[in-house]
Amino acid sequence: MKLGKRYRGADLFEKSKYSNLNICLFSFVLVLVSRLIIYVFYQGYAAQTGDVRGFLPALNIWDAQWYRGITAGGYTYGADYSGGLVNWAFFPLFSVIVRGAHAVTGADIWLLGFILNIIFQAAALFLIFKYVLETRGGKAGQAIVACVLLSMGCYSFYFASYYTESLYLLLFTGSLYFLYQRNYLLMGVFGFFLTLTRNTGIVLLLGLLVQVIADYCKLHGKKSIAGFFRFAFTDWRLLLGAVFTVMGLVIFMSFLWTRTGDPLAFIHAQAAWGGGIGNPFATIISGFTSGEGRQAFFAACAVWGLILSSYLLWKKRFAEAAMAFALLLIPVSVRLQSIPRYLVGNVVFMLGFTDLIASWNKKWITVPIVAISVLLEFGCLFLWFRESTFLW
């Protein structure tokens, strides 16, 4: 399908192809196929290298071990940072969900996480498809490309591992979708769970603020600060949605306060990973000048994130652009590590990327880009199963 394909008001048959049921089936099948590819690739990798870990242990490395530890044993007591790495840096919702499923079924934790992430990612792709159709003039081709890249493209293996990526993608996309629809209560419900999943979920409030400002400027000819406050603060649904979003983070901070005596333990624990807040642009420059290929690659990815964020701004997608800049600059202000993962795991960057592709409206460009990304994913899987820190 041509990427620039749009619905026509009279073309009911074309539109019916993208019913909720069909989008749901497409999303679920796409995720299942992606998992099958990862599984088959690992079996080939194990046969060639003699790897005996098994599929799920080989897939669930690095931070997955931290999340499993929280699932099985909860959080460490006492705010003692002298021992190095501590699990307070990791937010609880994913581990809580898996722990609940384990209590009910008794099934293996790795397996439950794998199955739940299939469900989370399929639901996320469903919402992404809907969001692209509603915000990009019915561009079904763009929605398909976004879903394929997020399920099978470069770095998409993270959505299959015992990480929060799939859950975060679902909750962030849900928040974004209902923000677009101005359904602030449902946005707040998704936002509540979002800020229990990852600290950057609070960026949703920035998107909300920018969207409300844009709405005020569009709806009111004569503008004033007092007028804006009346516009915003007389909408109880908007205010309640914002409060819901904040409450997820507040609950986790309250828990950390009772557990460790430090409500900001999730921030202070970052020091063990070499994280100290600084100038994000200086961090990017230092990545290029470090003389280390890994850091230079991460810095290049950060620059690419800035380009995508700027493109969203240029296209006047102000709420998406504001969140994209924040979602990039916040982690970069600490370190460059994991920046490629953050770019793939935050849907606003994929929206910017597919907007850019759609602007060319050339199938001969779109297909090779998707194919190259899928091929690069095999390289990522090889490095991941080798536990290469290049991907970490």
TrEMBL record:
Recorded GO CC terms: mannosyltransferase complex; membrane
Principal location: endoplasmic reticulum
Gene Ontology MF: a single term: GPI mannosyltransferase activity
UniProt cross-references to InterPro entries, sorted A to Z: PIG-V/Gpi18
Sorted UniProt keywords: Endoplasmic reticulum, Glycosyltransferase, GPI-anchor biosynthesis, Membrane, Transferase, Transmembrane, Transmembrane helix
Keyword Transmembrane annotated: yes
Calcium as UniProt keyword: no
An example Gene Ontology biological process: GPI anchor biosynthetic process
Compartment(s): Endoplasmic reticulum membrane
Membrane topology type: Multi-pass membrane protein
Pathway the protein takes part in: Glycolipid biosynthesis; glycosylphosphatidylinositol-anchor biosynthesis
Transmembrane segments: 21-42, 109-132, 184-217, 238-257, 296-314, 364-385
Alphabetical list of PANTHER family matching this protein: GPI MANNOSYLTRANSFERASE 2 (PTHR12468)
Protein name in the entry: Integral membrane protein
